[in-house]
Amino acid sequence: MQTPAPFEYERATSVDGAIASLQEHGPEARLIAGGHSLLPMMKLRLANPEFLIDINDLDELSYIDDRMTEIRIGALTRHTELLESDVLARRFPVFRDAEEVIADPVVRNRGTIGGSLCQADAAEDLSAVCAALKANIVIKAPGGERTIGMDGFYIGPFTTAVGADEMLTEIQLPIRPGAGSAHEKVERRAGDFAIAAVSASLWLQGGTIADAGIALAALGPTTIIASRAEELLKGKAPSEELFAEAGQIAAEDSMPVPDGRGPVDYKRHLAGVLTTRALLRAAARALQQEVH
Amino acid sequence: MEVTITINGEQVTRDVEPRQLLVHFIRDTEGLTGTHWGCDTSNCGACVVLMDGKPIKSCTTLAAMCVGHEIRTVESLERHGQLDPVQLGFHELHGLHCGFCTPGMLMTARALLDHNPNPTEHEIRTAISGQICRCTGYKNIVSAVRWAAEHEAAMKQEA
Question: Which chain B residue shows the shortest CA-CA distance from A57?
Answer without folding.
Answer: B65
